Structure formats: C-alpha cells, structure tokens
Amino acid sequence: MRADRLVSLVLLLRQHGRLSATELARELEVSTRTVLRDIEALSAAGVPVYAERGRHGGFALLPGFQTELTGLNHDEALALLVAGSRRGAQTFGLGSALASAMRKVVDALPEGHRATAAGAVRRLLIDPETDLLSRRLVAEEVPDTIVAEVRRAVFAGHKLRIHYAAVDQTPKWRTVDPIGLVTVRDQGYLLATRSGADRTYRLSRILAAEELAEPAQRPDRVDLDRAWQERSTRFRTGGDQVTVLVRVNPARREDLVGTALAILAEEADADADGWLRLEVTFQDPRHAEWALWQLATSAEALAPQWLRDSLRGRAAAIAGCYGVSS
C-alpha cells in the first residue's frame, strides 16, 4: 500500500539522514520514478523533505522532525531487533512487513538507545545461511501469494482449499480446516484438520491456495507447541520407520543425532574405548543406510542385519571401483 510505503520512506530518511533516489528505491523495492512521486506527495502533505544537489546529494528531512518511544529500554529494543533478524517472517511471507516494522521500532527509540541498540545487534548473528562446515542451509521458497492466502485463512478462521503435492502422489485439491502455522529450520508447515483428522502440510508443497468464506471447524483456543509435539511424536513412530542399534565415535555423535528422527537409548559401549552405543530411529531403510554411510568408519551398525549387509555391499562396490588394475 502506498501509505505504508510513504511511512517507510520517512523512517528511512530519519534513520540515515540523507539517501539518494536510487538508494530509497532499492530499500523500498520500487522504481526511482515511484520514489520521486512519493517525495512530491510527502512535500505536498507538509512533510519537511528537501533535495540536496550534487555528487553526494539526495533527499533528507529538516532536523528535529522525529518522534520518540520512551517506553522501551535498551534490552527491550535489542530483543525486538534480534527477533526481527530471524527468518521465520520470510517463511510466512512477512519479510517486507517485518523490515518496515523494524524501521519503525528503530526510529521510535530515544536517540541514545537507538545508537547503542543498533550497534549491539550488529554483534549478533542469528541462524546464518551456512554452518561451520560450509553446508548451506537453504530456506524453502514459497510464493508470497500462496502464503498470504494460507495466512489469511488461518487468522480469519475460514476453511482453506489447497492444491497439494504430497510425496510420490499426483497433486490434488483438498479442503481443510486450518489451525496454525509452524516454522522449523526455515521450513514452513500448515497444521490443519481434514474431515476431523489431524493433518500437517508442508508449505512448499502447496501449489495453490484459496480462502473460503465458510468458517473452519476448529477450537477457539489452541496450544500450537503442544499440537506440534504430538504430531511430531506420531510422525516418528509411524510409517516405514526403522530402529537401528549403532556404535559411534563420540566426535561424530552430533552428526548421527542430526540425521536421526529420534534417540531411544544411549550408553557407553563396553566393547569400544570411549565410543557410544545408541538406539535410534530413521524414517525408512534408505534413510538409515544413507545416514550410516555418511559416517564411514566413525560408526558401525550393529543391528538389524539387513542394514549391515547393505553397507557391506556398498563398501565392496566402492572397493571394486578403486581396486588395483592389471
């Protein structure tokens, strides 16, 4: 909306002092022509914005044109800015709204708090895109139009019609009663019910969505954290999941735990100095074989036997590829 953009433009000028039309266009994600029209509109409305000519020129506000929010202390402001740096808003299609809100928070702080909070938040990095091993953590891309439609149905309490592509199935239209939205490691999920049964839908697999006028059949209050825990438990204990007994070098324990669905038991391995013995579950046999293969000689599958045979066969095939040629 243009009104929101005009407010954001003023806040950007307050915080930066002077910005060129190109810089404003980049921040607001519009064209420079739109920025110039907005500047004219602000001037006509009495906002004291003026242009400075020259190589380092741009647009600025007359000194003193600002307001303060005195109810926030330094730590409260820092908490808001840190929360604003997380990527959950991107998952739910609220990235641009979050950026606008953060500009308003910073602008409304008293001058002393503004400088110290902005400096402190630059010393904190939340959820970087890569870990220490340079493995890229890629957030799922979901079209904003789809997320916005899902979000509106969740907040309004209306039924939702989605075109959903389940794994290894032809996409189908389904009408669901949305309960809430959850983000886990930059993956978004819709918690809903369909014909009274609990359902969990991955946002990246929703190909289209349509909010319906009919009210959703759902309780007035919901504990999303509890609902997610219950569904996670059912997921871990259902389907084609397999349980594996494995001994692992403690240095690679986190790698194993990071790929498994759940740890059922853990103890020191009496037969290997310093090694651990874990009973873990994987989503299916293929998942178990892949996870153990990644650990190479730092882990050994003890049971079931079919997994040991599969890993032995894979190792023999690799050894055959690199055997001594005649």
How is this fold's topology laid out?
Blueprint: H1 2-16, E1 18-19, H2 21-28, H3 32-44, E2 49-52, E3 58-61, H4 74-84, H5 88-91, H6 95-108, H7 111-121, H8 144-156, E4 158-164, E5 172-184, E6 187-194, E7 197-202, E8 206-215, H9 224-236, E9 242-248, H10 253-259, E10 262-268, E11 276-282, H11 285-294, E12 299-303, H12 305-321
Antiparallel strand pairs: 1-3, 2-3, 4-5, 4-8, 5-6, 6-7, 9-11, 9-12, 10-11
Helix pairs in contact: 1-3, 1-6, 2-3, 4-6, 4-7
Descriptive overview:
By secondary structure, this protein is α+β, with helices and mostly antiparallel strands. It is built from 12 helices and 12 strands. The protein has helices at 2-16, 21-28, 32-44, 74-84, 88-91, 95-108, 111-121, 144-156, 224-236, 253-259, 285-294, 305-321, and strands at 18-19, 49-52, 58-61, 158-164, 172-184, 187-194, 197-202, 206-215, 242-248, 262-268, 276-282, 299-303. A 5-stranded antiparallel β-sheet has the order 7-6-5-4-8, with helices on both faces. α4 (74-84) crosses α7. The longest helix has 17 residues, at 305-321. The mean pLDDT is 80.
